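#struct-help
A.M.: can someone run this one for me? Single chain, 180 residues.
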Amino acid sequence: MEPFATKEQMAARSQGAIPASTPFLEDELKAATELIRGYCRWHIATSEADLVYRSRTRFAEEIWLPAMQITALQEVSLNGAAVADPASIAFDPATGWVNIRSTAALIKFTAGYEAVPADIVSLTLQIAARALGSPLGFVREQAGGVGVTHSQIASNVAGGSVLFPHEMAQLDAYRIGWLA
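D.P.: on it. Structure tokens below:
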């Protein structure tokens, strides 16, 4: 999957301080994207078709698809029998709830934002810039009378590619299982 932000967006956001040709920039954008996706527990963007959800349980349970921004159910099989008209099944696009209960379900669906939301792009750039800002894990550098202190997650622990609590709070609106 493509990262949530581009090298060109980083160059523009940093006003040239991090040019698009910066070594490892693409890697850090991908790492930040995967960090965000991992926290949110789904791919977020862009919209993807033919995502597959399989459920096999001992008892009939409500189905919650592992995505938000669901736009369609393409195929549904319950206990091995195909549902003739998947469009007749109601679902909540925001939470992934589907109005069926089953012990065995196979659902193909489409979900995800068409474009990466602006706040996700911004956060991706912020995380990648933080990781690039201290590639060796230094928390403080000094040369003569000039000192630079890098972001830290704890005393004397470099920030790098991690999510801070305020960033997690920002992502909670996109996180599976979180209700506003």
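A.M.: thanks! The radius of gyration is 21 Å.
D.P.: also worth noting: The beta strands are 48-64, 70-78, 81-82, 97-111, 140-143, 146-149, 152-154, 157-158.
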